Amino acid sequence: MPAPDSNESDSLFDPDSFRMSIGEHLEELRWRLILSLVGFVVIAAICLWFGKDILSIFSAPLVHTLQQYDLSPQLHSDELPDVFMSTIELALICAGLLSSPWVLYQLWQFIGAGLYPKERKYITKYVPLSVGLLVTGMLFVYFLVLPWTVQFFISFATDVRLPTARTSLVTTKPTDPPPSRIDEIAGDPAAPVSGQLWFNTEQRQLKVFIGGHQKVIPFSSDNLIATEYNLPEYIDLVIGMLITFGLSFQMPLVVMALARVGIVSIESLRSFRRYVYFFMAVIAAAITPGDVITATVALMVPLCLLYELGIWLAVVGERKARQAAD
Questions:
Q1: Which segments of 50-81 does DSSP mark as H helices, in order?
Q2: Can you list the pairs that 296-300 forms with residues at least 24 positions away whose Cβ atoms lie under 8 Å?
Q3: How far is CA 247 from the centre of its chain?
Q4: Is the C-alpha dihedral spanning 307, 308, 314, 320 positive or negative?
Q5: What is the spatial distance between Cα 295 and Cα 290, in angstroms, rounded to a whole number?
Q6: Which of 38, 114, 221, 254 is the most buried (most CB within 10 A)?
Q7: Residue 130 near residue 253 (C-beta atoms within 8 A)
Q8: pTM for the whole thing?
């Protein structure tokens, strides 16, 4: 017996065969929520175990930029629980992102039985695409947008000079003792002695060996602004950018949904290109105000491509719907 086509299978689908009582629905929902919570707790425990490593990974763009400008690559903490709370926050966010496939799977197991086959096909097709776009937007921020943004603000802050631009030069005599100097070492000395002072050129840190332990001496640039960056404010900035760009990368699905529902026609989406592109350029220039090339290439082009992807998805969906109707 040949397998029925999609239209025939839709007509043979009987929703009554999947009906459950209210009590069965509540019991099913309870178990799905328990399984989702267990998966989240397990991944959260793993993320908390590697919480300090996650904190270092999120701080890497700022630390590398500070090292490029010969600034002390250390973040500051004003309050006692700042480091602990920032680590917990990052660990829970990473746990939510990593456990999202498992949670979505459990949610799908609960609501999938109550959907028609055509509705199931839409969800199984576009939910993975939505998750992929979300992850792509976050990776785009971490590897491209965030380093450029941090570099712009640090370069702007370190370019403000002191009002007294002139510095007196003192000529020393041959009989004067030589001025003290700090050794520059590509690393740390293997056997430092107590009171030894050196500059680690790899880590861009000024260190001293006292009491049997290495200590780091903070320093800043020689301009008007003494740059000291707090950990909680930087983590909030990174999380805000990750969420903003992750959601903005959902643009193709939003454009496709507007066209499929009938709010905006595909012809209107195409005719609005010039206005949408201009709006994208303004947003890109506002996010990275220090570099026009970066704003145009790294931000405007991906956003415009996402807009075109949404139009293409709408066209493909309309074409398939027309073929199914015929």
A1: 51-68
A2: 298/144, 298/145, 298/148, 299/145
A3: 11
A4: negative
A5: 9
A6: 221
A7: yes
A8: 0.75
